[in-house]
Amino acid sequence: MSRKYQSLIFNDVRQIAKDPMLLASLLGPLAIIAFARFGFPFLSIWLEQQFSFYLYTYSDFTVAFLLLIIPLLPGAMSGLLMLDERDENLISYYAATPLTRHGYIFYRLALPCFLSAMLASAFLLLSGIAAMQFENLYTIILLTLEAPCLALFLVAFAANKVEGLALSKISGLLFAGPIAAAFIPDPLQYLALWVPTYWPAKTYLLGTLNEPYFALASFALGLLFHLFLLQRLSSMYLKRTD
User: Fold this and answer.
1) How far, in Å, are 32, 125, 141, 164 from residue 129 at the CA level?
2) Of 3, 21, 60, 82, which shows the fewest CB atoms inside 10 Å?
3) Predicted confidence (pLDDT) at residue 11 exceeds the cutoff of 70
């Protein structure tokens, strides 16, 4: 890591250590992986014994649902850090340093991307319930783009951290994506195409159904949609900070 990012890294560690919400955003994905690995089998056995309900029937949906939580947490963390720094006018300070404003934005968006890619990969490898398939690569790429989309959404529409926290709770609507992909029949399912989380969930589920060409098409459309969102949200954020 370049030396020009050292002050940002130090500030991030300090901020996260003293803010329980930011710390939870960082550690939350690890708890999700642990639940999938150890809690899901236990819950499945209990439900089968108590109610004759076989939870593993819905393991593919469970994976798609839990996976989308992973990028949302570091994405929200990065967005809230950016709002903190904007409130304290630190962005102007960073812009006047060798880091520059573009370097600052790159770091703030690259960090949640990196965390999302690593943690989503860890979930797929370690959860014990995820299908091992080539289409997982597509899913990871789309999930990686979810994090900067959420971070930019928060800083583009929130005036301060309090509003950012409120908007981060609205992101719970994104859970509609995997629900639509798994349970809503065509053509009603197409109403969910505008929900970003629909695309990684649909891509993963198509892979589990052994539909590689449809999964590739879903990935391609989802990639274009996420890149469009990133472009629009970046433009809105830059206009707000100018």
Assistant:
1) 12, 9, 20, 34
2) 3
3) yes
